[in-house]
Amino acid sequence: MVDVKNLNYASLACVLFQRFSVIISDGLLAFAVHQYCRYLSRRTSGVSKSWELSLMVSVLVLANFGLLIVDHIHFQYNGFLFGIWLLSITRMMEGSVIQSSLLFAAALNFKHIFLYVSPAYFIYLLRVYCFPSTKPGVPSRPSVSLFSPVNLIKLGLAVISMFALSFGPFIYLNQVPQVLSRLFPFKRGLCHAYWAPNVWALYNIADKALSVLARKAGFAIASSPAALTSGLVGDVQHVVLPTVPPLATMILTALSMVPAMVQVWRRPTGPESFLRCLVLCSYGSFLLGWHVHEKAILMVIIPLALLAVECPKTARVFLVMSCTGHLSLFPLLFQPAETPAKVCLMLFYTLASFFGLKTILGQDKVRLSWLEVLYLCGLGGVQFYSSVLHTILGLQSRLPFLPLLMTSVYCSLGVVYTWICFYVDTLRPSKPHRL
Predict the structure, then answer these.
(1) Mean pLDDT of the chain, nearest integer
(2) How far apart are the C-alpha atoms of 123 and 120, rounded to whole Å?
(3) Could you tell me if 29 and 62 are in contact, meaning their C-beta atoms sit under 8 angstroms apart?
(4) What is the 3-state secondary structure (H, E, C) of 80-138?
(5) What are residue 138's DSSP bridge partners?
(6) What DSSP character marks residue 219?
(7) Percent of the chain having pLDDT more than 90?
(8) How far apart are CA 262 and CA 104, in angstroms?
(9) Helices marked H in 237-387
């Protein structure tokens, strides 16, 4: 089991260890949800309302379809990691800044994917903790006179101590270069083997379409050494459009976060502004990052669920986003025998989310537009083609990547749409997000 050269290893003991270790570690996620529900209870008036919000948060996070299939079927430990992250978010909402920073640093050292949201932590902590307001609850204009070097030192020591604990052994053994080479795999290409539903999926399909049209028009177009639709991991050169280097994705990702960070710096309207900035940083990293995995969509869905239970506009965004993001995870379970299970589980979660949010927020307040309903119906069409029609038409050998391409590109449209909607709502001035 621990022999790294032993391929295709399988045993009942190994399977039991993997399954039960995931189930047990999910206890941390349940504890984090419990802590967040306690926070909601303390700031919500009315026992009935508090209970409804807590129940809805528990359903949206603990019964999350994406976490279920990624951890318990595809097998990973995301629930455990999201538990640490959710605890960090909860402590930040409660005002326990140092605890939140320690927990986030721990999550980041467990898995560097949390680097996606570090700008939200940085700007909020700098603005609220290092430039504290003179009047509690009322943000002051940041100035040098408000700067607290003591708070900055306390914050820095907390974060550095966690990183020292994590990287100390690697520094001692002179293995830091090896760690960094695995944290940032720039040679693996712009996209994963299965394109994550982001901007680069749309960019890839645009390049593919332009190359086909150019050849039909008689232009001499060279083929890429590694085809975009080969389904293989590797650095790929675009044929017509400019090839995107890692630096370009880093710059675009950073630029996508700037408006949200400026909003927090100028108008830090309490912990909700932090949480909204967190979601937007996750969105930007997922949509524009280098070699993004499809599972990273959960970095958007989970914190978005925390906002959805209290804001009708965010609930609408969440419903479209969760349907889109969760369906984009379907290719992880590619065996035909798994199709009924994943379809039924997603339908159950979607219906529970839809009717639950409409119940606690109001039937008339959570209403999808006809365009959104039409798009969600299209998701069903994409899945029907991928699981049924593609095989009936006999295209498995000639166009094996087509179902994945359709899923990725169609879901990309929904993710980009919800990102724009959520960004506009966040930047819109002078409006209460919560009920």
Answers:
(1) 87
(2) 6
(3) yes
(4) HHHHHHHHHHHHHHHCCHHHHHHHHHHHHHHCHHHHHHHHHHHHHHHHHCCCCCCECCE
(5) 135
(6) -
(7) 53
(8) 22
(9) 246-266, 271-288, 298-308, 312-327, 339-361, 370-384
The residue behind tokens 């994945």 is: 404
For residue 329, the SS3 value is coil
The kind and range of the H/E element at 178 are: helix 176-183
DSSP state of 44: S
- Record the tokens describing residue 430, joined without a space: 């002078």
| DSSP string computed for 190-211 | SB-SSPPSSHHHHHHHHHHHHH
**Residue pair 330/381 in contact by the 8 Å Cβ criterion:** no
How far apart, in whole angstroms, are the C-alpha atoms of residue 75 and residue 158? 32
Give pLDDT tens digits for 58-115.
999 999 999 988 877 766 788 889 999 999 999 999 999 999 999 999 999 998 889 9
Task: Tell me how far apart the alpha carbons of residues 101 and 114 are, in angstroms, rounded to a whole number.
Answer: 13
Residue 40: φ, ψ to 5°: -60, -40
58 CB-contact burial (10 Å; exposed 0-12 / middle 13-18 / buried 19+):
middle
Number of Cβ atoms within 10 Å of the Cβ of 346: 22
8 Å CB contact between 303 and 278: yes
Q: Is 139 helix (H, G, I), strand (E, B) or coil?
A: coil
